[in-house]
Structures are given as structure tokens and as C-alpha cells.
Give the backbone structure.
Amino acid sequence: MAKVVARPELTWAERLYFVEIFKGMKLTIGHALKTLSNPDTLTTLVYPEVQPDLPQDYRSRHRLMKRPDGDPRCVACYMCSTACPARCIEIEAEEAGDHHIEKRPAVFNIDLLLCIYCGMCVEACPCDAIRMDTKKAILVDDARHKFIISRDQMLDWDPSDYPDTDVTSQEAPGGKLNEEARKAFESGTGH
Amino acid sequence: MKVENPAGDIVELMTINLGPSHPATHGTLRAFCALDGETVSAAACEMGYLHRGFEKMVEQGTYSMVLPYTDRLNYCSAMLNNIGFCKAVETMFGIELPERCVRLRVIIGELSRVIDHLVCIGANLVDLGAMTNFWYFFNPRESVYKIWEKISGARLTNTWTRIGGLYRDAYDGFSDDIRAVVTKIEHAIAEVRALIEHNKIFLDRTKDVCVVSAEDAISWGWTGPCLRACGVDRDLRKDEPYYGYETYDFDTVIGTTGDTYDRVMVRMLEMIESISIIRQALDKLEDGPINSTDARVRLPNKQAVYHDMEALINQFKLIYEGVRPPPGEHYDATEAANGELGFFVVSDGGTNPYKVKVRPPCFTQYAAFGEMIEGSLVADALPTLASINIIAGELDR
Ligand code: SF4
Ligand code: SF4
């Protein structure tokens, strides 16, 4: 059954226009008074003095995860750059030194002006080496080349900004399942 | 411009370009109008004014890479487009989705429809000079965007569905957030209706303005709220139900006249129906998996990838090769906020789509725009443009 949109005819008081205008004013002034008496209810932010409060898993600028020894966890498998719809990840592999790991990235650049922040690189990574949880979503700079971030820029983060909870892990491969991933890493079955 | 009218008189017409066409705006349109004073004597709409190359670009990447592009079709309800495209590919495979995934898609899809209507009506009323309503609608809309931030990690270009599942599950407290926000939206709808429903200016400027008859609407190929405003009871959720829409209790909303008033009010009442669907779906939402376990389409879960060689190989195959629907052609449509959003996908069995043709709802509506405004005032043409809800990103792909 379909509902039919009613087409009411105006009464003479409504056609007078002023009555309705006053009713409307009552509503809008009510809103104004409510906000004036309690400005915290305002939806708008005094940007840029007040920055938006983003959730930790908001898709923001990337960072690269580290192994306990500080090396990048990335094994230069090129999965992220293959999955990237914007094709903005540039990786060059080198020998890792450790034969269990084989490869690591010598170059790992992301062009943030091309990046569309879709998160597909994070989803593609088989060893949780790249994440997008820096909350840096608003980037400002004065030259295009400054938006191409390098491996070292992405490795440069402070662990105290990312508390090690059961949903995030800093030291071992693993996403949501930190404990198990850590065990896998330590027992050598991890990748 | 001097022209001769059918009666043989020479009249002086002024030609103008109508529509937002600044290069920095995200959607550009052009309606070329010939004005006789304030009356539009003739109008022609130009398609392809905003060239995005959606259909060509998606041929360059895998099926998963199409998803971020769909966000940018109708960006007011990005997730409805995600759902539409994923559904098309999933049907090609014949995949059954887990129940929780379907319910979440219904909830998020309906909420997207609601915010799309909020923008459309809000902007429509601004074109009539009623700015306040816009803010009353945008406050709850902002609360919805807060939910989007949490569930998908992005505000506008959400890329939230995946072929065979979802990018992320709902977070803790999701149901409460949604219930709170729909109550807010209901309150906003009540306030805006109180402001406009008996407002002489609003009624005078929308009733019997730019009327489209049911026959015309059908022959133009209209769908969605605009078609329903002309009195045609057609809604894919009712007529060709998918995602279990037949199990929800809701009504379609139709108009009687097909004027701007009907188009606004159909959307207004549809939001109330959508909210009722959201509540019913939340009541039935149960815990469970959100992704299909079909290894041909969906990445294995990360726990398996870290431990298990098979899962790792599966991950490699899906990233390096992507999903490969069986060869053939397939058309699949969903009821998006604006009408029937269809994807015609041709697969040659490879990893990239051979062709993806989008059937956007705006396209047919905008095609009729020129004819609709001929004979009306310029001031009425703009609210009419807003009432057929043209989103240029979708119009020109
Ligand atoms: S977020 Fe998307 S576009 Fe950006 S680097 Fe990752 S995959 Fe590429
Ligand atoms: S970040 Fe992950 S997916 Fe990308 S190359 Fe490194 S290990 Fe592979």
C-alpha cells in the first residue's frame, strides 16, 4: 500500500501569512535561545582553533610498523601497491640481511596527493606492516613534493601516541589479534 | 538574440547558462536557456559537461578497485553506490551473504537514503529562500557523519562494502548511536514540516510548478522519488525485493500531481519510512560473520593469514589477480536514494571488468529538465533543478 502525499489547502488564518510567520519565528528563536544558553550543543567547530576529534581508526596518513629491533616490518611484497587503486605507492626492495625475512623496502614512498585514503593497502598487507591510524587527516604544505612521504617519515612515530591495547599492537605483526600474532612471530611461524 | 516565434513576430531573447559551473565545484552542470523577460522560452541541457571518465577508468583496474570510484558517483549517499556495485558483482558469482552483512547493508543503506534526502530537501528549500531548514537538517546529518567516521573510517568517500562482505563490522555501541540519530532526524523532520507545511510562500512557489505527468515521467525513464511524486507506485525495494526488503513493514510514498511540492514531500515522508526500516533491522540485527567465506571473492581473515599458508596464498591470489566473475553480462539494480541505480557489468572472465555501464537515476531526470522548465519562471527553474536532485558526479560519471 502506498501512502499518498496530502495537499492541504490553507485556512484563511494561514493565508494571512503573518500568523504562520510568528509561529515559525517562535521555533527559530527557541533554537537560538537554546544554543545561546548552552553553546556546547553547537554542531559546528571553531576550526582551525578546535580540531575535529577523530576516532583512532579513521583512515588518515599512513605509518609503517616496526619489528622489535626497529627495522620496518614490511617485507616488500608489493601487495599494498598492487591493491592501491590510485597507484600511489612506490616500493623498491633490498636484501634484509636476515635470511628469514629476505626482503625489506629500501624505498617506500606514498604520494599523498594521489592517495584517496581508501584503506585498501592496509587490508592487503599480509603482515600488518602498514596502518592508517595517525589521525593526521588534514595535511597542509607549500610544495607538491612535500606530500610524497618516505619510508623514514612513515617509520617515525612515537609509541606513546599508540597505546598498546588488545586492538592495536606495536611490536609484533598482528592486527586485532595481538597476542596470537605475537606468539606466531616469536615461534617463527609468522611471516 | 532575435528570433521569430510561431506567430511570425520577432522577439528579443536573452541567452544564459544556468547551473553551477565553476571549475572548483565538485559538480558542474549546464542548462542553456533562452529567456523572454523572466520566462524561460527554451532550454537545452548539456550532458558530459563534467567529464570524469568513470566507465573507462574502471576498466583499468580490478573489480575491487572500482569501489572507491562508486563513492564518487552520488557522494551524498556514497554507501548506497558501494552496495549497488557489490551486489551486482556478487550476483554474478551467485554468492550468499551472511545475514549480519545484509542487515548492516540495509541499515546503512537506509540511513544513507535519509541523509541524501536531507541534503536534497534542505538545498531545495534554500533555493526558495528558506535557509533555516537547511541547518535543522544538517545538524542531525553531521551526527550521521560521525557514525560514518566510526564505522568506515571516512566521512564522504566511505568505500565501506567489499565484494562478498564489508570492510569493517559495526563497532560497540553502533545500535545505540543509530537509534539516537534517527530520533534526532525525526525531530528535525517534524520541525521542518512545521515550518513549511502551512507556509504560504513555500506552497505558492512549489504547488503546480513544473508539473510532470505520470506518462511523461515513464517515457523519460524516471525512477525513484521523482517518479513516485508523479503518482507511479514503483520502488525496487517493493517490486523486485532484494536483501529481504519484503520482510520489512514499510510503505512506498506517492504524490498525485508531479509538481515540485510532491517531489519535496515524497522525500520527506520517505525518510520516515526509511527510519522505520532502520528500527526493524536493528531489532533483528544479530551477531555473526560479516564476510562471505567464499575464497574467490573475499580476503581471508587476518588471523588466518598470519598463521596459515593456504590463507596467505589466498590473500596473494586475491590481491595480485583479484576477483574473476564468470564470463557474461549482468545487469543488477538497487533502489538508491535518487532512484534506480543500475550496474551493467560485462566480464570476459578476466580480473578487470571488460565494461561497466552505470545507469544513474539522475541521468533520465536531468534529460527532462529542459522540457520541464520551458514556460516557467527562472526563479522556479532553480527549485525544480534541486527537486529532481541532480548530483553531477552521478549524472556524468
Ligand atoms: S589508502 Fe588507498 S589510495 Fe592511499 S595508498 Fe592506500 S591503497 Fe593507495
Ligand atoms: S607494507 Fe605490507 S603489503 Fe606493502 S610491501 Fe610491505 S609487507 Fe607488502
